[in-house]
Write a structure and sequence with these properties.
0% strand, 168 residues
């Protein structure tokens, strides 16, 4: 029963991740409230899974990965290469996906980040005029909404976890 509740917490995170992606795309802002809510959902899900399995390994691995991501990305925020919201969002992601999902998340993040950079750098390939103008505006300002690929990678990882648990 704890597995179902843990998966429900992950499902509840999907609309929040979609909201974060949309707001980051339109305003280039990720609120602390949203990141904190994701942390609570992720930590709650990991706690339920740890109680069910009797092992705290996944919780510890997620905490270590979150700390490592924060420490690794903090200098990029200091140098103004990424936003503070992106750094905090990345630090929370291991709690949301768990240690077992880090490899899949990393691969998906790479794919979605490359797609985002290609879209921002080559807006002439996009079909809609207004959307193209918005992307060109982001390119001129030198802004890339990294919350979008982060959120998309996490959503896909969560969907994969739900699918794999339902097949087991």
């Amino acid at each position: 029963m704890l597995l179902v509740e843990a998966l429900l917490l992950k499902v509840l995170a999907i609309p929040l991740l979609a909201r974060i992606a949309w707001l980051d795309f339109t305003t280039q802002k990720i609120s602390n409230r949203d990141v904190l809510l994701l942390l609570c959902l992720g930590a709650g899900g990991l706690l339920l899974l740890s109680l069910q399995s009797g092992s705290w390994w996944d919780m510890g691995l997620s905490a270590l990965a979150g700390l490592l991501l924060f420490v690794a990305l903090f200098p990029f925020w200091v140098l103004r290469k990424v936003g503070a919201g992106d750094v905090k969002l990345m630090a929370v992601m291991p709690f949301l996906i768990g240690g077992s999902g880090l490899v899949l998340f990393s691969m998906l993040l790479l794919v979605f980040a490359l797609v985002t950079v290609v879209v921002v750098k080559t807006p002439f390939m996009l079909p809609e005029g207004a959307f193209r103008l918005y992307i060109q505006h982001m390119d001129r300002k030198g802004v890339v909404p990294f919350g979008v690929p982060i959120s998309m990678a996490v959503i896909c990882t969560i969907v994969f976890h739900i699918y794999s648990y339902s097949m087991a």
